[in-house]
């Protein structure tokens, strides 16, 4: 069993000949990535991460996770973008759907809340209420150490932690994941004596889930980070060594670029499991931030199904024909719920008696795939055998590798994000940050 990309349902939109003709382009993009000869080649540390990571730090991550599990009711994870989405995707994929509200004796690990991924006063105030009377620790994650959203949340919750425990004990409850040498957070962590974890120089935010950025919060949730890394190592081996014709990551990169060239400018990732919502969010960031530049790229969108079949389903079936759909299919549900027969069949559901809820879900999925295909929406599928750490590791690596290759096929640098700076400059100017005085005047005139 393994994570597999399957495009057999899109056969009427992509011919075998087109795939063969595209092979040279894909293999050249793969070589550019693996030989580190393309744009952004100083950010390719993620390629070997699953087999070449800091074992000592990995052991420290497990130790810190055990300490947090022992002394905290709650872990606050503060970060945004690549310093946020991977951990959240993994935790929601691997744990109970109602993790935070499970009785503590059942969950056995701390509640985990994410903050610093918006600038919402309400969210911060609401979270402060949740923390009242609870023992908590903070994992502040910022590679640059200067990002506004997490920095603001950290100020608020550091203050709360210090009021509760005093400066010295609070410092022992703060774990800083940041650059190994530079940045405001690194300086503060050194000064205050926080335990520090490193975001490697050559790993960009959206490729950092398998570093301490993702691993510490994931380990605190009780997930097995060894299995996660083993899965990623397996994904890496397959991506690097399997021939084009059966290489999931390469085929996915090929198919999405062929479809883009045919005018399909939107890729919708569709999951049929609510616990994959944040996997889709992580995927959106990975592909959106990597490929959307120089006026190019596929627009990555996501839907949760069958939920959104009752909203976005109309557009996908019948609206502007601009998209293709990539279904992420968990083949074996972790739970089996059987439907029973009722004496009076008021709701007309007795025909499903003896069937499992997952059978209904899979039937909805298969029916939708055919309907969307009939509506000229090419359907691709990424199959995940089971929802566990190993296959999640494979999935993360599969998408990361496909993203690198796809970005080079597209002719852009997949590893920078110059566009993210524009809003920051305007925000700093409007906030009156020193050094932005001239821009401030200009912007105020326009508002
Ligand atoms: O992928 C990226 O590089 C970004 O999404 C960053 O992760 C995000 O902006 C947060 O940056 P930092 O970790 O420096 O606070």
From TrEMBL:
Belongs to the GPI family. Its EC number is 5.3.1.9. PROSITE patterns: P_GLUCOSE_ISOMERASE_1, P_GLUCOSE_ISOMERASE_2, P_GLUCOSE_ISOMERASE_3. Catalyzes the reversible isomerization of glucose-6-phosphate to fructose-6-phosphate. It comes from the Bacteria. It catalyses: alpha-D-glucose 6-phosphate = beta-D-fructose 6-phosphate. GO terms for molecular function: isomerase activity. The lineage of its organism: Bacteria, Bacillati, Bacillota, Clostridia, Lachnospirales. NCBIfam families: PRK14097.1. Pathway: Carbohydrate degradation; glycolysis; D-glyceraldehyde 3-phosphate and glycerone phosphate from D-glucose: step 2/4; Carbohydrate biosynthesis; gluconeogenesis. Keywords: Cytoplasm, Gluconeogenesis, Glycolysis, Isomerase. Coiled coil: none annotated. The active site is at 289 (proton donor), 424. This is Glucose-6-phosphate isomerase. It is found in: Cytoplasm. The gene is pgi. The keyword Isomerase applies. It is an enzyme of class 5 (isomerase).
